[in-house]
Design goal:
Helices cover 0% and strands 61% of the residues. The protein is an all-beta fold. β24 and β25 form a beta hairpin.
Length: 341
């Protein structure tokens, strides 16, 4: 069963997250257009506030767990790839929830074409990981100048100190995924040249040479080892489940998608699930139930929604349900889907 709720109208909505503020949970969603709006929706009452202070072109929203009402964001990354002035900023909201709230916005790092960011490390010893889509462009489809992955130390006020290049020469970066495994925290970064893993000590190692756009990790076949669930290639037409074997990563299952832009995997009622979002074709959000059979892995598919073109999703696993918050770019709406298995 799928229940859909339209939480807010938001033209060209792109980035989305859920964060806590004053003991309540809020869905925050931002537009990628110039001077685009940001909405903040109470997940219980569905009351909508407008958040001002950012200037649009918002590619990422990363809550800072230890600082209430504080999040990192990428802004000034405008369509299509008009992003030489893109920057990472620190945003702080304060006071009571009001219909219009102004965030205090402070520059963390100006970084042309920065497209994905993550926060690693412990409170007080945070690190900012930032990946650029490219170094520069002569025209829209010019990919001759690959980007890089950078690391910055952040002080207690989240000010950037120093710069370390973790990986130079990564083309069309679109994937950045943080996950916990066996007591360690890992960050995956992907691009045309493959997928790299950053460990807790700051070491970077290459996992595979598969051309990967967005990705996540989850044990979909129940053998105790995580598989790589990914979109391939950049903004690609394939959803793949890759399994690590002695000879390398092997494709267990593959599904056709269109302009794939977001992916997630988790479980509900003990059953493994995979979500993918297409921004072209039927512009669907699809749910897959991977089933292991003698002949291989079969993917049972179900349409969650169509003609919405979700750019990004934020998924929460509850006891008997999966809750999806979606930035439905193609429909200009922020939506919530509750799936009960």
């Amino acid at each position: 069963m799928v229940i859909k709720e339209k939480l807010a109208a938001l033209p060209m909505c792109y980035s989305i997250t859920v964060m806590k503020y004053r003991g309540r949970s809020y869905c925050v969603c931002a537009s990628e257009e110039r001077n685009g709006k940001i909405v903040m929706v109470d997940t219980q009452t569905k009351e909508v506030s407008q958040l001002t202070g950012l200037v649009g072109g918002v590619m990422a929203l990363i809550p800072v767990p230890e600082q209430e009402g504080v999040f990192l964001a990428i802004q000034k990354f405008y369509p299509v790839f008009a992003s030489r002035k893109a920057e990472v900023v620190c945003c702080r909201i304060s006071g009571e929830i009001r219909p219009v709230m102004e965030a205090e916005v402070r520059l963390v790092k100006q970084l042309p074409f920065v497209h994905r960011i993550a926060l690693t490390g412990e409170p007080g010893k945070r690190r900012l990981i930032a990946a650029t889509l490219c170094r520069d462009k002569k025209y829209t489809e010019d990919w001759s100048m690959p980007g890089a992955v950078y690391e910055y130390s952040l002080d207690s006020q989240l000010r950037a100190e120093g710069e370390r290049v973790l990986k130079d020469g990564i083309t069309q970066n679109h994937g950045m995924y943080t996950y916990e495994k066996r007591g360690g925290s890992y960050l995956l970064v992907s691009g045309k040249e493959g997928v790299w893993a950053l460990d807790k000590q700051g070491g970077l190692s290459k996992l595979c040479g598969e051309e990967v756009s967005d990705l996540c990790m989850f044990d979909v076949d129940g053998d105790g080892m995580d598989e790589m669930i990914c979109i391939s290639p950049f903004h690609g037409d394939k959803l793949k489940i890759l399994k690590k074997e002695e000879k390398g990563w092997v494709c267990m299952a593959e599904e056709e998608i269109s302009f794939g832009h977001a992916v997630w995997s988790g479980s509900c009622e003990g059953e493994p699930l995979v979500l993918s979002c297409s921004r072209a074709g039927d512009r669907s959000i699809k749910l897959y139930h991977p089933l292991v059979e003698e002949s291989g892995m079969r993917m049972e598919a179900m349409n969650i929604d169509e003609n919405v073109g979700a750019s990004n999703i934020c998924v929460q696993e509850e006891k008997e349900a999966v809750v999806i918050y979606a930035a439905n770019h193609g429909a200009g709406e922020v939506a919530r889907y509750t799936i009960r298995w």
